[in-house]
Write a structure and sequence with these properties.
With 225 residues, the protein is an alpha/beta fold. 39% of the residues lie in helices and 10% in strands. The protein has a single domain, classed as Uracil-DNA glycosylase-like domain (Uracil-DNA Glycosylase, subunit E, 3-Layer(aba) Sandwich), CATH 3.40.470.10. It has a six-stranded mixed sheet, sandwiched between helices.
Length: 225
């Protein structure tokens, strides 16, 4: 299977009834600021460089971000922080992304999410997480050059651990705890944690630009970029 074939399968997924109803309802009701736009309203696939050495893993598309634009982290404030950091690290050709056709290109980097549909209150249920998990596993199988996974938040950290286990990586004991800058060294798919660039973290100062830059610099170091 190719990345393009996997993307087509993801976009057509309707496995989680609650998420299907929510993503499509949001696409109809919209946010006032985007009332004139056509929302994507479907699962959001990953995107980036097929030869990526750094994979960035988030939680799920935002209701009025990726669920609107059709590209994860595109068109929301979390994405503003993420793409600016990727640009400063030399992993993106521009520091922001507003739409899926805005010319953004990732270099040595691929961005995806543990859950592909926007969930109510940004909280997927365990069953929804588990139904989506095989997509990340298959991405990692196809992205054969990946040397490090940057996990944005504890949910992504746990999803990455599950994906590594599904691919046959030894289960670390004790289970490594998530934290900003936490690392799980490994021959394949080492992990590095970062607080998620959500407004809850960036507005409160829990996550600063230098903190995010430090994680991206470390990821590039591990990936030998």
């Amino acid at each position: 299977m190719s990345l393009a074939a996997l993307e087509a399968e993801i976009v057509g997924c309707r496995r989680c009834p609650r998420l299907v109803v929510w993503r499509e309802e949001v696409a109809v009701t919209k946010r006032a600021a985007h009332a004139h736009e056509d929302y994507w309203g479907r699962p959001v696939p990953g995107f980036g460089d097929p030869a990526a050495r750094v994979l960035v893993l988030g939680l799920a598309p935002a209701a009025h971000g990726g669920n609107r634009t059709g590209r994860v982290f595109t068109g929301d404030r979390s994405g503003d922080w993420l793409f600016a950091a990727l640009w400063r690290a030399g992993l993106a050709n521009q520091p922001e992304s507003r739409a899926s056709d805005d010319g953004l290109r990732l270099q040595g980097c691929y961005v995806t999410a543990a859950v592909r549909c926007a969930p109510p209150e940004n909280r997927p249920l365990p069953a929804e997480r588990d139904r989506c998990a095989p997509y990340l596993v298959r991405e990692l199988e196809l992205l054969r050059s990946v040397r490090v996974v940057v996990c944005l938040g504890g949910f992504a950290w746990d999803a990455a651990l599950r994906a590594r286990a599904a691919l046959g990586a030894p289960a670390p004991r004790p289970k490594p705890r998530f934290g900003h800058g936490a690392e799980l060294p490994a021959e394949r798919w080492p992990l590095i944690g970062s607080y998620h660039p959500s407004q809850q973290n960036t507005f409160t100062g829990r996550l600063t630009e230098p903190m995010l830059d430090q994680v991206m610099a470390r990821a590039c170091e591990i990936a030998e970029l």
